[in-house]
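The following block was generated as part of the benchmark described in Methods. Ligand: NAP.
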Amino acid sequence: MDKGKVVYITGGSKGIGKGIAQYLLQKGYRVAIGARQLNSAKQAAKDMQGDQSQILPLQSDVRNPENEKEAVAGIMDKWGRLDVLIANAGIGIFAPIEELTYDQWNQTIDTNLTGVFNSVKACVEEIKKTKGYIITIGSLAGINFSPKSTAYNASKFAIVGFSQALMLDLRQQDVKVSTIMPGSVTSHFNNHEPSAEDGWKIQPEDMGEIVYDLLMMNPRTLPSKIEVRPTKPPVKK
Ligand SMILES: NC(=O)c1ccc[n+]([C@@H]2O[C@H](COP(=O)([O-])OP(=O)(O)OC[C@H]3O[C@@H](n4cnc5c(N)ncnc54)[C@H](OP(=O)(O)O)[C@@H]3O)[C@@H](O)[C@H]2O)c1
């Protein structure tokens, strides 16, 4: 993919989404970043190094299909094209089944699964026009089970299936689809506050580099499912 192309990153205000946005901005892409509150997206844009005119902060709660349609309309108004969707917005709520509430279950599925569907539905016709790329951010929790993770595991296992089926729907129309499934990444996930102790984890800019490598890959080749893990996690004693 060439410079100047337009990328929409959901959940671009923090963590992985912000790291991908910063990396692609420095590689010459135009980046639209979504967040539930416009101020969070604007603040993230201000924090970024690079040409501010190449960043479009947007309010969009991915749980709301109309928000996502409006976000894409905003991108089309500003730049007139859309090449890449990074469906990244997600939350993690961890509790044993007896304690997990109906509301927590619904929040997780509505954000991590239906939210990705809403983003894809809003973007797909524009991305077909540019023969672009859809990347979903799954998780190693899409292949590995953990205790206290019924909602999160369910949402991330589902994202693997959703993304691979989406890939089959779109590949003959020259739209690539990949899901990236990271292990531990330094971010604000699950109310985490990043610190020096996170040095062993994958960093948000590393996620940006992976996305960039996918975008640069020869059109004939498609890594459709990418597992990524920290090289050397601390050994549990
Ligand atoms: N960190 C990890 O170790 C890890 C590992 C594997 C997979 N992941 C996945 O990576 C993705 C990003 O998580 P992260 O680690 O970067 O967490 P994070 O630092 O908490 O960032 C989450 C982002 O998602 C946004 N968001 C949350 N709910 C949203 C909604 N309903 N609509 C729009 N945006 C929403 C947040 O924006 P606002 O709060 O400003 O709205 C924020 O920008 C998630 O899908 C997560 O499951 C993370």
